[in-house]
Amino acid sequence: MAITALASGVGISIAPVKLWEANDFNSQNLVITTLLLGIFLIFVGWISEQKDWKKHFSFTYFLLGGNLAFVASLAGLFEFDWKIIYFVVIAVLSFLFITYARQTHSYIFMLMGVIYGYIAFTYGAFKVLPNSLDPSLYMLYFMASGGGVIVFLIKIKELIGLKK
To answer: Which of 25, 33, 49, 151 could link 75 by a cystine bridge, Cβ 3.0 to 4.6 Å?
Structure first.
């Protein structure tokens, strides 16, 4: 409840229904505020683990903060200038979440890092590639990445260190 109150205090609605009704992701101030709140919550989760302060809440901090930071970064990537900054933020967050998932053997954090990173990479690739490319190359990309998803799901236990 304290996290929800903090988010409401900075103008962010965390309830899923309210998120779609009340929040306007076309507002750069809201996106930056949400991104900073997400990073703050991730930092609080990390500090709680490092200092052994209410360590049992770190999962909640990481989960909520990570989703807020990733969604805000994707909104910034899709809607605003300085796309490279939002792309770098997503890349760093993805790397950190994948690394954390491997340390804690967590499926959810591995999925968060990979899925949000994949969305950003795909958007960036299609934004950079010229429109004159053959449409079959786009289809090939999605077929190859679909195969990558299958391999990822088969190997996820190895990736997070549960299976040798």
So the answer is: 25
Round to whole Å and give the CA distance between 100 and 114.
12
pLDDT tens-digit series, residues 95-124: 999 999 999 988 999 999 999 999 999 998
How far is residue 158's CA from residue 41's CA, in Å, rounded to a whole number? 28
State the pTM of this model: 0.80
Report the distance separating Cα 8 and Cα 124, nearest Å.
32
Question: Distance between CA atoms of 49 and 136, rounded to whole angstroms?
Answer: 48
pLDDT digits (tens, 9 = 90+) for 70-96: 999 999 999 888 899 999 999 999 999
Radius of gyration of the chain, Cα coordinates, nearest whole angstrom: 17
Which H, E and C letters describe the chain, residue by residue? CHHHHHHHHCCCCCCHHHHHHHCCCCCHHHHHHHHHHHHHHHHHHHHHHHCCCCHHHHHHHHHHHHHHHHHHHHHHHHHCCCHHHHHHHHHHHHHHHHHHHHHHCCHHHHHHHHHHHHHHHHHHHHHHCCCCCCHHHHHHHHHHHHHHHHHHHHHHHHHCCCCC
